[in-house]
Amino acid sequence: MATPSYVDLATLAADHFTPTSYANTLVLRTNTPTDPPPLDLSTPLSRVLFDVQEIDTHIDTLTTQNALPIITATAERSDASLRVLDEVESQVNALTESYKRLEREVSERYEAAEEVRMAAERMVRTLRLGRSVQRAVQMGRQMEGQMEALQRGEHKMMVPAVYTLLGLRQLFSATGKGEEGEGLRRVNVVTTLRNEVVAPAERTLLARAQQMVREFSMSSLLASGSAGQSGQTYNQTEDTKTRTTSALQTLYLLSPTKPITAPNAFTPTLLLSSLQSYISTALTSSLASLSRALATLPQLDRTLLEISARCQNIVALETLLSSIKPPDHPLLTSPLPNPTNSESATANLLQPLLHHLDTSSLPSYFWRSMAGQLTGRVNDILARGGVSARTLRTNKERVRDMIRECVDRGSRLPGTNEEGRKVGNWEREAAVMVGSVVGPLGR
């Protein structure tokens, strides 16, 4: 039977007991919220102290009355703890011994195996690098032989040399782990190969191709002095076509391929710039010589013959471009760009140039570009007056006929007679040219 006590043990032992609520209850028993200060806190404090002393007395009484059971229970728990500790220590010792045996049997062997694996991996990488270096050196020797053949005049070796160059470029650009060319940039012999063989060969190929395009000429008008005779043999004509074809394909393949945002976004910039430069040179020379000839009419016949020859060369170039298919580019996933989303746009090397110049025909572009600048030159001659202006006005009909004949003659393929095939709507271009010269004369 429990010893009676006035201490509220049920409240103090409750799960929801909080010291603040209990203290607040004791304070409110001796004070009211309306009492003026100071508050009476000594009485609640005395009550708490007295309760603590009473609880202490209860604890002392209980421990005294139950000393033997407490000591017995404590001893039993201590003995149980010792037995558990002994068992745990034996298990820990067994685990420790097992771990040491596992470390000897597995960890040490794994470390040895890992070392062997790393050595094997590095040997494989070294072997792969050695094969890449060997391939690069072989391709470098192949390129040297091709360039020597090119120096001897074998222009057919241009395209094979470019393919070798692109293969080396593709090999050098490999930087990813596991790729064939990984680590090549750190090999001295490869660096020497790039600087002393590949780079000079690329410059030589580019310069030779651009030179061939600049020197392209198939017209025999100036050589023969008339439109009906041929100044070139068949072999010479075919050789010119072959050399120019090699040069055009070389410029296409050497054009930069990065960055490319889409598979069909490649633009052969070197090819387009060389062809545009060729046409621009023909335009500039023709415009300058025709401006001088209009001021001195005795030179007009020879000048118009030269202009016809330049246009015939452009006609021949257009025909040649239309017959050349884009070569397979090893650095691209698709062939020539497709600006019009049609199959014909990828059929030959002419379409990219027409798209770049925004024209449907190169002769038309030649005549219309010249006519667009010629009217101003004629106005300058008329503005200066003098004998040149009077002579030009007097011979207006003769100039008209000579310009029409010039356009007619220039619109034929080189080597054809007066009945030869004309390219494009030459009458429309002749009207544009005649209007640019004769138009100001009638004002």
From TrEMBL:
<keyword id="KW-0472">Membrane</keyword>
<dbReference type="Pfam" id="PF20649">
    <property type="entry name" value="COG5_C"/>
</dbReference>
<feature type="domain" description="Conserved oligomeric Golgi complex subunit 5 N-terminal">
    <location>
        <begin position="15"/>
        <end position="143"/>
    </location>
</feature>
<dbReference type="GO" id="GO:0006891">
    <property type="term" value="P:intra-Golgi vesicle-mediated transport"/>
</dbReference>
<dbReference type="InterPro" id="IPR019465">
    <property type="entry name" value="Cog5"/>
</dbReference>
<dbReference type="GO" id="GO:0017119">
    <property type="term" value="C:Golgi transport complex"/>
</dbReference>
<dbReference type="InterPro" id="IPR048485">
    <property type="entry name" value="COG5_helical"/>
</dbReference>
<dbReference type="GO" id="GO:0000139">
    <property type="term" value="C:Golgi membrane"/>
</dbReference>
<keyword id="KW-0333">Golgi apparatus</keyword>
<dbReference type="Pfam" id="PF10392">
    <property type="entry name" value="COG5_N"/>
</dbReference>
<protein>
    <recommendedName>
        <fullName>Conserved oligomeric Golgi complex subunit 5</fullName>
    </recommendedName>
</protein>
<dbReference type="InterPro" id="IPR049176">
    <property type="entry name" value="COG5_N"/>
</dbReference>
<feature type="domain" description="Conserved oligomeric Golgi complex subunit 5 helical">
    <location>
        <begin position="184"/>
        <end position="406"/>
    </location>
</feature>
